[in-house]
Amino acid sequence: MSDTPVKQQSTAAFYGQAVASFAVAMAATALGIFRLHADAWVRGFLAIAVLYLVTSAFTLAKVVRDRQEAGQLVSRVDQARLEKLLADHDPFEKL
Q1: Considering the entire predicted model, what is its pTM?
Q2: Is 51 exposed, middle or buried (0-12, 13-18, 19+ CB in 10 A)?
Q3: Distance CA 72, CA 65 (A)
Q4: Does the pLDDT of residue 70 top 90, yes or no?
Q5: 18 — phi, psi (to 5°)?
Q6: How far apart are the first and last CA of the chain?
Q7: Which residues are CB-contacts of 30 (< 8 A; sequence separation ≥ 6)?
Q8: Cα–Cα distance list, 77 to 9, 14, 25, 69, 70 (Å)
Q9: Which residues, other chains included, contact 76 with Cβ-Cβ below 8 Å and sequence gap of 6+?
Q10: Quick one: CA dihedral 32, 30, 34, 40, positive or negative?
Q11: What is the pLDDT of residue 5?
């Protein structure tokens, strides 16, 4: 049975690009809503809608990640069981 842990880590450059992209998108959207020629209630509604969309996207990303990690854990348990069965199996043993 292997004891190597599952390690999936993104690079610092990828993390920085993701953070910068998110910051630029939020700033551009906020500037667009602020500069919009509409009543204050319309701008407020759009701002709340954007915030709701962002929180929903974070929640969805977390749920997808949690499902993937749970699937990996189940897969590792199944792999360990298979390795134990193969290690205990003696093809030359008489039945």
Answers
A1: 0.61
A2: exposed
A3: 11
A4: no
A5: -65, -45
A6: 25
A7: 47, 50
A8: 21, 30, 41, 12, 11
A9: 6
A10: positive
A11: 56
Which 3-state string (H, E, C) describes the chain?
CCCCCCCCCCCHHHHHHHHHHHHHHHHHHHHHHHHCCCCHHHHHHHHHHHHHHHHHHHHHHHHHHHHHHHHHHHHHHHHHHHHHHHHHCCCCCCC
Q: What's the pLDDT at 95? A: 62
pLDDT tens digits, one per residue of 13-65: 988 999 999 999 999 999 999 999 999 999 999 999 999 999 999 999 999 98
Under a CB-based contact definition with an 8 Å cutoff, are residues 1 and 87 in contact?
yes
